[in-house]
Amino acid sequence: MYGDRPRARWSWAYDADVGLAEAGKRILVGRKLRSAQLGETLLPKRVALPVFASDALSSVAYAPDEILLTLSMAGLSAYAFNWKIGIAVALVMLTVVASYRQNVHAYPSGGGDYEVATVNLGPKAGVTVASALLVDYVLTVAVSISSGVQNATSALPFLNGHEAIAACVLVVLLMAMNLRGAKESGTAFAIPTYLFMFAIFSMSVWGFIRYAGGTLPAVESAQFDIAAEPPYEGAITTLAMTFLIARAFSSGCAALTGVEAISNGVPAFRKPKSKNAATTLFLLGSISITMLMSIIVLADVTGVRYAEDPQSQLLLNGEPVGPSYSQDTVIGQLAKAVFDNLPIMFYFTIACTGIILVLAANTAFNGFPVLGSILARDGHLPRALDTRGDRLAFSNGIVVLAFGAIILILAFDAEVTKLIQLYIVGVFVSFNLSQLGMIKHWTRHLRTETDPAERRRMMRSRAVNTFGLAMTATVLVIVLLTKFLQGAWIAITAMIVIYVIMRGIGRHYRHVETELEISDMDVALPSRVHAIVLVSKLHKPTMRALAYAKVSRPSSLEGVTVDLDAETTAKLLRRWDELGIQAPLKVLDSPYRELVRPVVRYVRERRKASPRDVICVYIPEYVVGKWWEQLLHNQTALRLKGRLLFTPGVMVTSVPYQLTSAKQAGPPRVRSVPGDVRRGDPTPVRRDDES
User: Fold this and answer.
1) Which pTM value belongs to this model?
2) In the chain, how many domains are there?
3) Which of 79, 294, 437, 539 makes a 20 to 30 Å CA pair with 400?
4) Residue 245 half-sphere exposure toward CB, CA atoms < 13 A
């Protein structure tokens, strides 16, 4: 009769009066999206590239710094290996990108390394990969945000000493942006990411043009020598130099972080998902390698010097430069030299670099929630992580990631030099198990494939994965050897803890599923239903509970009260008889003035006497409108429910009775407005002051 119009109007009316908290949420997150609108949130390649590649692209901003920082320990002569290490890092990245392009085609569901390892190596390997990726995502946010804040400190001195608080604020802002949905956050972050690419490519192209023309000046730090640190002073043994180069290589491999995010985010792409994800991976690899090698080569030709302790390591005429010298980042030094005749481009490059370091965390905000939802669906994490929020994003996963990153930032005081030591381990654990899983994947399919062309393609793919496994395993061993004591052990410990937790959650869900399987006994109906109404005094809530219990037509109905005071109990019995209530009232003795224990004991005895029967306990409860009123009521009911819920065969039913404060605190209905009748809206409306 009324159709859909009145329901739509009531929904609007209710939303309009839900309160300040809901209004604030709508301002922060945006309007709700229907489940059918999920397709509208999918990303085109032009948006997916900055969303999923910002982490890997931002690594270009600090990977060269980490290489030079490590080599400077052996003095200026070690810089000769700079470009060679860059080529090795680029080769590993090229191999990993080629491997992941196969992953997104073979496993497009979004599980990425976790799915590859689970399907081909077993559940334990899958959980191992998942724990490594979860740790790496949290570290990505902590490292990226902390790095961005520390870069900003040079331009904003008031942040000095408050880096951790500023980083936490930025994490919260990123969380809020991502709660609005992947498409909206991606669109907002796409422009800064593309501007960063433009800035680095402009600096590289203009730098090489000036170098070819002989007009490229040396950087300011080119005049310095570098003092070697122990044990690299004097003659360096081959073993020591090999270890140093390996350590520099492992530091430079920070450029690979974020490559795996695309394979975990395939479901976020528009169709054809696998093809678009593979294309985005190719673009990511090409851009990252080009930018990385351009910066490393420019650093060589302009004579960049970069030391961990510049005030004592950098020497001018054999003497340390002292505290008056302030060391810029590698990109900062290059931009100052390349754009010495174009200051606006120098500031533009520095600004874009600082912004991309912060936005790199957005990759984790897109990868972590999706991976968390898949793990929750498989029973390894709480099911709440598989729930989409108002904007169809996995809101709980976004909040958990932000909370974990804030804890790390506060624990390490937003110091990148400390956080970076925890980095890389997790992502290379997942790289290795993923490559091994893909090798088994191709081997399994080759056993049944008969088409010669398809077999050749599979064999080429397996060769790529085999080479990739050799490369990533080498990097992992180097990382563990060179960074374990510097902080990598913390990341490994975190992975082990998360692994144990996920295995425990998985066991719990499996046990629950087994317990909840329907058996023959569950199909049969109970013999009888005994209704017990708890009575403290005779008033409206008790009468309502008795009425509800009677309407349910139980096999038997009785009231139960506890004798705490003989006079009060006698009055209750007299009043019960006066009202002529058609149910017996059972009085339970309580010599020690206990209330909960006698009721629980009585219910359990009734249950024990008739195991096939069901006992339903009705508990009258007040519904109040103010939080402090809750402290004055329902405490006994809460304790009783807590005890009875653990008794098999016993159901507990709360019978609510709304007090006046509860009715006043409820959502007010909308008053009639002029034109309702004319528009054909006959919805009955109650005024706020009506009872």
Assistant:
1) 0.71
2) 2
3) 437
4) 19
Angle between helices 452-483 and 425-446 (to 10 degrees): 160
Closest CA to 192 of 177, 207, 206: 177
Domain range enclosing 548: 526-665
What is the pLDDT at residue 671?
47
H-state helical runs in 19-107: 20-29, 45-71, 82-106
Same domain, yes or no, for 407 and 540? no
Residue 32's CB is within 10 A of a number of other CB atoms, namely: 13
One domain, residues 389 and 530: no
Residues 137 and 284 in one domain: yes
Mind listing the pLDDT tens digit for each residue in 629-678?
A: 777 766 778 888 888 888 888 889 888 888 877 666 555 454 444 444 44
- Is residue 364 assigned to a domain? yes
* Whole-number pLDDT of residue 42: 67
Q: Please check whether residue 432 is in contact with residue 407, taking contact to mean a CB–CB distance below 8 angstroms.
A: no
Written as one letter, the residue type at 437 is G
DSSP string, 482-550: HHIIIIIHHHHHHHHHHHHHHHHHHHHHHHHHHHTS--HHHHSPPS-EEEEEE-SS-SHHHHHHHHHHH
Here the CATH number for the domain that contains residue 546 is 3.40.50.620
Which pLDDT tens digit goes with each residue over 603-617? 999 888 888 888 999
Q: Which residues contact 622 (CB under 8 A, 6 or more apart)?
A: 541, 633, 634, 656, 657, 659
